[in-house]
Design a protein that fits this description.
Length: about 300
Amino acid sequence: MKLNDLERMKGIVVPILTPVDEEERIDEKRLRAQVDFVIKGGVLGILAFGSNGEFYMVEEDEMLRALEIMIDQTAGRVPVYMGIGEINTNKCIRIAKKAKEAGADGISVLQPMFLKPTEEELYQHFKAIAEAVPETPMLLYNNPGRTGYTMSADLVERLAREMKNIVGIKDSSGDMTQTEEFIRRTRDIGFKVFGGKDTLIYGALIHGAAGCVATMANFVPELVCSIYDLCRSGKIEEARDAQFKLNPMRLLMDKASFPVGTKDYANLLGLDAGEPYRPSLPTTGAVREKMKEALKEAGYLN
């Protein structure tokens, strides 16, 4: 994807789950099958190693091997973005360069976890990464629930206006005012704001988001993508109905250990996603039964 042609950066982007074998090595066969499944389901982009892709569990060489598999299997059908979540600027730069070499269409960079950086430190962090791959489209990734702090609208607007290849943001704050501010303050320059909460896809799109990064597209992609498609077609009531159908399943994921709910649901639907990386374990007991009931009520299980 070229900086002067970002038309393909839109719609539902799936933070694809990462299937692994018993030795926690990337399972190539199952990963290829998952790529085909989500594309057939209507997604318009694949994000490798987002939060639900368990990036924090994976060694760098394994990440890059999986990225190459995804790019090969996708074969240009949709853009593939590389998620980067390291807290060290130089590590982020190294992964960004390798992702570019592998053929990724763009990168998505999470604000550093564990640290409590100043606004200027954050600015310099993102600026350095963007400058290291100046022709590669870069999305910021705001996830205060996992990092402990949020990116300000001032920071995002500054980066959007000063760095030509920082072209968008995924906002997982769950704060519609903040998402709306990201959109309002950058809409004159075509900055691509993506919602990052599955329960707020409809809300983000109504406020003018370019799309959403939605983990539930890993197992019910048609339903998730229908919210975007219906909004784009002006069928607002139908889009809201689809969102309301999605929400009970998504809210139950919060009862499970993060981030195993995505693989739980995928496995319940027969997608053979495998187990999460340890120490996470598959969901059992009452929560798993409630997840099955939610799938039945939504018409996905008999």
